[in-house]
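Here is a complete protein record:
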Amino acid sequence: MLRLLSEAGCGSVAVGDSPANGNCVGAMHKLGLTEDKLFGAHIADMSHEVSVDYPEGKTAKHFYFTREVTESDAIIGVCKMKTHMLERVTGALKNMYGLVCGFRKAVGHTTYNNAAVFARMLCDLYKATPQRLHVMDGVVAMEGNGPASGDPVQMGVILASSDPIALDSVFCRLVYLSPKLVPTNVYGALAGIGTFEESEIDVVLIDEDGSEKPVAMSELVERCGDPDFDVLREGERLNVLTLLARITGGKRKPVIDASLCARCGVCVDHCPVEGKALSFAAGRSEPPVYNYKKCIRCYCCQEVCPKKAISVK
């Protein structure tokens, strides 16, 4: 992407992200991506926040963006094709949470504390920033316990669109997940950001020789899809089990595998809930213990666990 921007004559290009754990410069260097390899682009710091009011927001009227966001004419999102325990999948729209200053991310989960309201906040974030294009890396995707503790799976695709909702819905179709089950798709369409309706999406396949070929969605899925991709496909069905869950308060929750837990405390540190929803109640010789009455199911703990010891049950 940086090479293409350089060839297009873009004079000032920065690349970065604001992770919840660590920092952008450290992550880039860990990957061996020093500035001499970035086709004239520079690594954005992404650690200084700027308070931005957005009175037009339907759900979020204020953001703490990284300084670079307010200094940019255009933003290109480069996301990974992967699962997500809160929104089922994380794609083009969800990736833009990376524009929020890292240490503010966990706090955002307490303010927008379920999948629906979080998705609506992301719609406001999209409209508040100059986003132009979205590219999804699905050469190797992540399935299962995403967005950080899942398993790699070969998909062999790169998707690109100026419509993040259309892009994310094509991702859903490739993994045999109904786009209507993904809150970011539903609320993104309602907000007028894009569409997930198959009849409104034109798909162009670019072959290895560079030729472009319009294809039907069904052909794309047959050629590039994976029906065995590990993603939560179950919808909300009003049956005995869901009724029982509503009555008893039973629902999905993060669970720690004691055999994998390193007792490092990263999950405890990143829990955004006031007073913490998990703690070393039995001492540091044992894994942290959840207080599920406090837990808001944001799965920040699962996302930051360096040992992949937390899964959602």
Notes: The longest strand covers residues 131-143. The chain has a mean pLDDT of 92.
